[in-house]
Amino acid sequence: MDIYGAILAPFKWLVSIVMLGFHEAFNFIGLPSSSGWNWTLSIIGLVLVIRAALIPVFVKQIRAQRGMQLLQPDLKKLQAKYKGKTDQLSRQAMAQEQMALYKRHGTNPFSACLPMLIQMPFFFSLFQVLSGISTASQKGEGIAAMSHDQVVQFEKSSIFGAPLSASLLHGGGGDSQVTVWVLSIIMILAMTASQFITQKQIMAKNMSEEALASPFMRQQKMLLYILPVVFGVGGINFPIGVLIYWTASNLWTMGQQFYVIRRMPTPGSQAARELNERRKAKGLAPIDVTTGKKMSEEQIKASEPEKPKGQRYQPSRKNNRKKNSQ
Q: Which stretches make up the Membrane insertase YidC/Oxa/ALB C-terminal domain (predicted)?
């Protein structure tokens, strides 16, 4: 076994154990063991378990993202301070002050990627389990916690006539080939669209004006379009079972972000203003989204956008109009 396989081995066991637990539960309530819907629901159950376990990490991610956005004004001052200084001592001093800034705000640029990084071993483990179904079935072997009989059951399972172990590039063959292509394309589009919408709603509503104008935002805009393309291209090789997992996970993320943006928006963002507008419509006092407490009169005035000053109309006298007409 190589190093990569050794690292993923415990994750493969964990993934397969959780799937088998849900599989037996659905089998107990009446779904056949070889039913594709039984295994599909088991994969969705795996998503729910992993994402529920990641909720504390997600809360940490939200705090880190909020901290990154709030420190943008200080980060701009730091960059202006060392602008044009390219010597090693200046770069080192800037890096130290930047790290101190991150520490003071309790955040760092990598915290936003933490939930995805934690999910990746489970994702790759599930990919290895499902993509190895056919080989294990032919050799009469099991995979991780799955016995040979369970491997055979999974290999025979399908939804809408498409085997769960088949992919766009490696279809089920025969009459199921077209069904595999259609279902794979639909799942890939759903997977990439849900990921794009999730990131787009964060950037459109849950970022302050300072964050939107920062260099960090340019990187986020690049990732907004690059990541869906990467997963979309990679999806042509994913088994349908893996596409189900990733799509369900993305839908969870989209709903989770919608809840956070609506209930716990970033200070200074459009979502924060909309929250206080909804409170105002209900007759409630606006709140400071950073502390959750009611805003003072000074804070309310400071949070209101400035009204554009139009040109004042000066009415002319009748005599002036007569002179101009002559």
A: 39-261
Extract long-range pairs of 148-156: CB within 8 Å, 24+ residues apart: 150/20, 150/23, 150/33, 153/33, 153/34, 153/39, 154/39, 154/130, 156/34
Q: Please report, as a single letter, which amino acid is at residue 211.
A: A
For 80: left if phi > 0, alpha if psi spans -120 to 50, otherwise beta; the answer is alpha
Q: What is the pTM of this model?
A: 0.73
Orientation angle between helical segments 114-131 and 55-70, nearest 10 degrees: 140
The CA-based dihedral angle spanning residues 255, 220, 247, 122, taken in that order and rounded to the nearest 10 degrees: -110
> Tens digits of per-residue pLDDT, 52-82?
888 887 777 777 767 776 777 777 788 788 8
Structure tokens at 235: 């999806």
Q: Rounded to whole angstroms, what are the CA distances from 231 to 113, 121, 135, 253?
A: 16, 16, 25, 16
158: helix, coil or strand?
strand
Q: What is the largest CA-CA distance in the chain?
A: 106
Q: Which residue stretches of the chain are H helix?
A: 3-28, 36-53, 55-70, 72-81, 88-105, 114-131, 133-139, 148-156, 176-205, 209-212, 215-234, 240-263, 270-281, 297-303, 318-325
